[in-house]
């Protein structure tokens, strides 16, 4: 996604401006280390391009920037649940309007913090008090930290994911390791399966790896790079690619869009909403993903 051509609506500093893509305002970072973009709609990272490299993050050419629909691609924030275990699917955070809380920069990069607080819309689907902060650190790597705090008087449970779409040269050529061998296969009705330590793709994949290493590697011979995805605060890693038939069924993805993307997600997975992670009043949890080439 080329953010550099969009005119600045607001100049916040030498490195940080606000731009707009259709109806969505984006915090644009242009720094010697990297350029990046974070949409306030969804608290959604839409680009991270280290100096001299292709973007590490994939965005669909057909993504809808109307300020209502979830954006296809980037790093959707799935919270306070992941999947279709409640409505809306993947929670409300990925379609909520986040607020720019702070930004700071130095020679090593830029840090942007967004915040989300409860309102009438969130209470209508999830009747809890909370505070959510998304800290995005842009430098030699991209580090995204979703921090949620229980500001209620009662405990609540949650799940979630940083649903990263990675930009790859050709998904049929990549190989991945570090996700472990045990996974729940969503294409086989949630069956528990054992696979190999290295993964290559020939078809649709939708797997929840239950014992991943903290570090997952993606080798991409076409772009001549290896991506490192380091996750923390998770209990699983979701790997997903819809393949041709899935891409053709999505209006916000081109028919061949699946060829240049691969999702490797830092995930707190729960089969049912009540089986999520319990957070006591005053407790904080961080879900983190850090991506580098």
Automatic annotation (TrEMBL):
The keyword Lipoprotein does not apply. Gene3D superfamilies: 2.70.98.10. It comes from Vibrio sinensis. GO terms for molecular function: carbohydrate binding; glucose-6-phosphate 1-epimerase activity. Belongs to the glucose-6-phosphate 1-epimerase family. This is Putative glucose-6-phosphate 1-epimerase. GO terms for biological process: carbohydrate metabolic process. The active site is at 163, 265. Pfam families: Aldose_epim (PF01263).
